[in-house]
Every structure is written in C-alpha cells, then in structure tokens.
Amino acid sequence: MNDPRIVKLAELLVCYSVKIKPGDKVLVNGTTETAPLLKEVYAQVLRVGGHPLSLVSLPETEEIMYRYGTDQQLTFIHPPTKLGIETYDATISISGADNTKSLSAVDPARVVIRNQARREIMDLFMQRSAAGELRWVGTLFPTNAYAQDAELSLRDFEDFVFSACLPDLDDPIGYWERKSADQQRIVDWLRGRRRVRVTGPDTDLTLEVTDRLFINCDGRHNMPDGEIFTGPVETSVNGTVRFSYPAIYQGRELTGVQLTFKEGKVTAARADKNEEFLNKILDTDAGSRYVGEFAIGTNEGIRRFTKQILFDEKIAGSFHMALGAGYPETGSRNRSAIHWDLICDLRRGGQIRVDDVLLYKDGRFTLG
Questions:
Q1: Would you say 225 and 299 are in contact if contact means Cβ atoms under 8 Å apart?
Q2: What is the pLDDT, as a whole number, of residue 367?
Q3: What is the pLDDT of residues 82-114, one digit of tens each?
Q4: Could you tell me whether strands 25-31 and 90-95 are parallel, antiparallel, or unpaired per DSSP bridges?
Q5: DSSP letter string, 112-154
Q6: In 3D, which of 66, 147, 152, 79 has the Cα closest to residue 114?
Q7: Cα three-residue angle 341-342-347, rounded to 5 degrees
Q8: From CA 37, how far away is CA 51, in angstroms rounded?
C-alpha cells in the first residue's frame, strides 16, 4: 500500500517547488532506493504536461568509480550530463542512500580530483539557476541508512522526513506560501545592511554583506526548506568559528571543526576527527577556503541533528556557512568545485548583530 504522503510530496515538488509547465523538459534524478517517490514525481510531471527523463543511479557505482577509475576516468564529464544542465528547464533530485559510509575509505586526493573536474558543471548549474533559466529542487527519501545515521527506526525517520516537508498535510502548498511571507519580512529588513557579527561559544565572526542580497528559502530549491542566506563579500570574513555539529562530507564525519579566517580566507583549520581530510578538501581550488554562503536556519519543525545536511542546515536556532561556491543571485563571486555546509548552534548564548542592531539571540529573531 502506497504511503499517501509520497503522493503529496511529489505534487509539492512538481507543482510548487519547480512549477512544471506543459512542455518543460525535466530531469528526475534518484537512486533505486528512491523508487516510490521517483515514480510519483515522474507521474506528476506527466500529469501537468512536462517531459520527464529519469536518471537512476545504482548502489555502489560511485564507490566502484573511485576504486577502479583512472584519473582520466575520474575527470571525464559525460556530454549528456552537461547537455542536461545546459538545456533542460528543471531538475528534481531525490537523495536515497543504502550506505552513507560507502566512500569513507576513498583517498581524499581522488575526491579532490573528481570535484575539480566537476567545477564546470557546478558553475554552469549556478549560472543558469541565477538567471532563472533552470529551476531545481532537491529532497531526500527516507531509507534505512539515513534512519540509522539519525539513530531512529525507519518508521520514525519517515515520520520525521514527511512532517518536515509537509507540516500541513491538508494544504502543503499553502503552508510553504505562508512560510515564505513570514521569512520575507526578515529578508526585507536585511536589505541594504552592511556588517554582520556572530558571537557564541568559541565563535566570534564578522563579515560584510554590502550590496549582497539575502534569499528567502521557502521550498523552491530544497524540500524541506527554512533558511535565509546570502553570499558574504569574499574578503570580508574575519575571526573564528567552532561548529557545534559534526561536518559530513563524502561519507566522512568530522567533529570539533574550528576555522580561523583572515580577510575572507581560512588560515587555520582544526578538527578533533579527520583533520587531515578537512585540509585536503580546503585545498581543492582557489575558492575552497573562502565562504560562499552565510545562512540562518528557520525550520521550527527540525530540532534534532540527523547527519543529513538537507535537514540539519535548516535547524531553527542555528546558522551555517558554506565553504566554496557561492550562489550568483546573492552577488557572490566565489567559485569553487565544492560547496560544503557547516552548522553552528546559537540556542545557548549565541547572537547575531547586523549593523550593531541585535537581530538574533539564543536562536530566535528579536524583530518585533
């Protein structure tokens, strides 16, 4: 028996997030683990008149590539991959892993090689997105692997995922439209501001946002959503931050990550676990030690850490920063093959001040 929430989520992705129109060419990316949602999305795209193309990955193929691929094979970009990003109207990507640790033993140098080769695709994707030529959304389908990482049963993790995406099951589109209006009030207040300071346990950061735009994340690109973000001036970040939660990248878990910035660049990077890996990734390219995104999480329905960045970066009471590529629509000029989000909890003694005005205290907005 199909879970009716899967049907509701597919409708939300197709009709709200990327607003598929008759004639739209749509890439639907997933894995075999995501088949129930992938099929519903495929059907819904057809119902509204779009042309869906399913790209389904098999388990372990990425691991096989790293195990047996030569450097030339690691860096090869298949022409259909680039063509899809260049010419399709929308992409719907559904994450669904059967083993979230399958790449844990891969040599970090090989990860860097592959990331560097894919920078062209990332740049193209972000440019078309910023220009409004490519609509996209990413979501996650609950699997046993994700449930185990979150230390939940599969049923409890399913409830967590669907409640985060569909807080109002009777009117999911209406819910996200209301959430959008609420967040827009904060985005409007931030327009034209110049300087941000973030303080908290082992954290004191300053950054400039002059002439940068804050974006209202309301379910158009992520589902679930709930954040407000911008791209800080590239050379403006100064100070130190210690991230509260483990940082996850390519199947590796890094704990106790602490970064020091000077004139925008990470000048010191430490971690209690996997510090060598941290610095390898930070040396991917010229942009990987700079910040592409600064964001505040706003999703009140996400209160626990799950080791899935799609949810964790939205935790209400947190902020996160992404090292590497920034989104051009914010005004960010940082380019990189990586975009790595790291999260800091501000619910116990944290503050965000904007132009010396208190915006955020102990994980809550202070605006009246």
A1: yes
A2: 85
A3: 999 999 999 999 999 999 999 999 999 999 999
A4: parallel
A5: HHHHHHTHHHHHHHHHHHHTTS-EEEEEE---HHHHHHTTS-H
A6: 66
A7: 130
A8: 17
Instruction: State how far the Cα of 15 lies from the Cα of 173, in Å rounded to an integer.
Output: 9
- Torsion angle (degrees, nearest 10) of CA 281, 286, 289, 293: -110
Q: What is the pLDDT of residue 303?
A: 84
CA-to-CA distance for 313 and 319, rounded, in angstroms? 7
Say whether 267 sits in a helix, a strand or coil.
strand
Of 321, 309, 340, 246, give the one whose Cα is nearest residue 95: 309
Token duo for residue 296: 């505040």
Q: Which helix (H) or strand (E) holds 194?
A: none
| pLDDT tens track for 240-281 | 999 999 999 988 999 999 999 999 999 999 999 999 999 999
Pairwise CA distance, residues 194 & 209, whole Å: 5
Amino acid at site 342: L
One-letter amino acid at 328 equals: P
**Helix, strand or coil for residue 63?**
helix
Residues 212-217: contacts with CB within 8 Å, 24+ apart? Answer: 212/330, 212/331, 212/332, 213/329, 213/330, 213/331, 214/186, 214/187, 214/190, 214/330, 215/187, 215/327, 215/329, 215/330, 216/180, 216/183, 216/184, 216/187, 217/183, 217/295
**Which amino acid makes up residue 272?**
D
Q: Can you list the residues of the chain whose pLDDT is less than 70?
A: 1, 368
Q: Are 12 and 41 spatial neighbours (Cβ–Cβ below 8 Å)? A: no
pLDDT given at position 250: 85
> pTM, whole model, 2 decimals?
0.91
Q: Mind listing the domains of the chain with CATH numbers? A: 4-165 (3.40.1830.10), 172-365 (no CATH)
List CB contacts of 350: < 8 A, sequence separation 6 or more: 198, 199, 200, 201, 203, 319, 344, 360, 361, 362, 363
What backbone torsions phi and psi does residue 171 show, to the nearest 5 degrees? Answer: -145, 65
